[in-house]
Amino acid sequence: MRLQSKLALFSAASKILILLLLVLGLPILVNKVALLNADERLMQKEERMYQIIEEQGIESFITSETGAYGSYNLFKEEFISLEEISSSKVVNSIENSLRKVDNQVVNYRVLSSTFDLGEKRYLLEIGRSLATIHNNSKTLQAYALYFLAAVVLLTVFSDLAFSKILLRPLTLIVKRLQRVEHPSTFTPKKLQTSTDDFLYLNNTINAMMGQIQEAFQKEKEFIGNVSHELLTPVSILQTRLENLLADPDTPESMLEKLVDNLRTLHRLKNIIQALLLISRIENEQYLRNETVDLTQLAEEVAEEIKERAEAREVNLHVEITGDYTLTKANQSLLFTMLFNVVNNAIKYNKPEGSICIKGQPHGKDYEIAVKDTGVGIKEEQLPHIFSRFKRLHAPDGESHGLGLTIVKTIATFHGIDLSVESVPSEGTTFRFLFPRQA
């Protein structure tokens, strides 16, 4: 999973967790706030009531006929009562209390306060319906939930946008590395960011790729130089051995040894020529200025190698559908590429086995597949079959040489996507996906 996705998921999960905790604790918190607000309102009314009594006198509320005062609003949500009590009684509290109003029992939040006026003591009670307080509490809870949900969504989107902006340099680094098909194609670039970590990462990658490019360049130069220098003495030795072999004065006992030495020199010369070919392709010493008909190319390869297939009792056939022409290619290199794959398919096939060279359109591109019924390649060896630095052994004990390395090098040179599928003891399929050229 990408770092940006992980950050976004963590941010969303943490905020949702906080929201759930708030949702669970919100009713208690809002109820507490609603009660505190109701108590504050009751105390404000208490102060206001004392001011009115001071201005108008207690007689405006309590007369000798009534002895007490009581007032309820229209919906019985609030009430105020005032009565004379015993001078020994003192009540100062705010608590829940049940009151009977019009034959209905109503639960109130009641503020009770005693005060002395003249020689008499009075009890002032101011109440507010708990149902009204709870209704207000529910309204507050609903608005609070909407507000919290909006805040969470807003912060999640803002975090996602910020993380995208923050990690944009890392995304640029990753995309630049993904476009690199070979170390030689990498171009160091400066990164426009104020984040020191990304600057350090980019500079480290640039330095590392520079070292890799230098190592690859030295390796290519070494292979090219050594191959070129070795080819001359090997050719001289081969000529001398051939002359000795043709000399009638050469003893019979030496002929067999000379043939073995010539065979060894021939293998060495093939390896040197293969390395030299790879080096020249990688250094782009070949031109891609020819037009190549893939149908004709496949048929030419099959015609060239059919005698070898017949000698090994392998059935070779070609199935090509559609026409496809490469306009920027090298005919001889493409021929070598397909020839090496088909040659390996013959070499590692079974008696009376088969090889099929199949070509068909693949979307806008064109695919040529070489499928055989040979010994196959082990799964753990597949990632290394194109490496020139590994020697892989077939089930028959023979080694895979540089032929597949040449195949991969030519495919890369032409921008061909090469893939391999193989099942041991059943066969191998090489797929060449030729890109559409403008």
From TrEMBL:
<feature type="coiled-coil region">
    <location>
        <begin position="287"/>
        <end position="314"/>
    </location>
</feature>
<dbReference type="Pfam" id="PF02518">
    <property type="entry name" value="HATPase_c"/>
</dbReference>
<dbReference type="InterPro" id="IPR004358">
    <property type="entry name" value="Sig_transdc_His_kin-like_C"/>
</dbReference>
<keyword id="KW-1133">Transmembrane helix</keyword>
<dbReference type="InterPro" id="IPR036890">
    <property type="entry name" value="HATPase_C_sf"/>
</dbReference>
<dbReference type="InterPro" id="IPR036097">
    <property type="entry name" value="HisK_dim/P_sf"/>
</dbReference>
<feature type="transmembrane region" description="Helical">
    <location>
        <begin position="143"/>
        <end position="167"/>
    </location>
</feature>
<dbReference type="GO" id="GO:0005886">
    <property type="term" value="C:plasma membrane"/>
</dbReference>
<keyword id="KW-0418">Kinase</keyword>
<dbReference type="InterPro" id="IPR050428">
    <property type="entry name" value="TCS_sensor_his_kinase"/>
</dbReference>
<dbReference type="InterPro" id="IPR005467">
    <property type="entry name" value="His_kinase_dom"/>
</dbReference>
<keyword id="KW-0597">Phosphoprotein</keyword>
<dbReference type="GO" id="GO:0000155">
    <property type="term" value="F:phosphorelay sensor kinase activity"/>
</dbReference>
<protein>
    <recommendedName>
        <fullName>histidine kinase</fullName>
        <ecNumber>2.7.13.3</ecNumber>
    </recommendedName>
</protein>
<feature type="transmembrane region" description="Helical">
    <location>
        <begin position="7"/>
        <end position="30"/>
    </location>
</feature>
<feature type="domain" description="Histidine kinase">
    <location>
        <begin position="225"/>
        <end position="438"/>
    </location>
</feature>
<keyword id="KW-0175">Coiled coil</keyword>
<keyword id="KW-0472">Membrane</keyword>
<dbReference type="Pfam" id="PF00512">
    <property type="entry name" value="HisKA"/>
</dbReference>
<keyword id="KW-0808">Transferase</keyword>
<keyword id="KW-0812">Transmembrane</keyword>
<dbReference type="InterPro" id="IPR003594">
    <property type="entry name" value="HATPase_dom"/>
</dbReference>
<dbReference type="InterPro" id="IPR003661">
    <property type="entry name" value="HisK_dim/P_dom"/>
</dbReference>
